[in-house]
Amino acid sequence: MLAESSTAAPDAILIATGSEVQLAVAAREALEGEGIGVRVVSMPSVEWFEEQPRAYRDHVLPPSVKARVAVEAGIGLTWHRFVGDAGRIVSLEHFGASADAGTLFAEYGFTSENVAAAAH
Length: 120
Prior knowledge:
By secondary structure, this protein is α/β, with parallel strands linked by helices. It has a single domain, classed as Rossmann fold (3-Layer(aba) Sandwich), CATH 3.40.50. It has 6 helices and 4 strands, in the order E-H-E-H-H-E-H-E-H-H. The chain has helices at about 20-35, 45-50, 55-60, 80-85, 100-105, 110-120; strands spanning about 10-15, 40, 70, 90.
């Protein structure tokens, strides 16, 4: 866990890796400002996480927390197993555009504001 919820149990969990973590942290700050307790999980290796004991995985991603958002600067398919049926994935599913990352992220809605909105 990169950032813990300000509430005893998180209301929502944001899962990200690499450069996407900054979006999750910014979204957490906005949501916490609204009184929503948010945990940010940095998951650099899905494979490593899945190899951990069930108790550890359930501690990091409590089954009782259904509001989950994965943040992926690519295809989001990998994250469905972690966000579940009630969760959302903010990802870039587009190819072929050419510009700097900031321009493309804004163009395709890959922003901390959209991550926060997905957590509502």
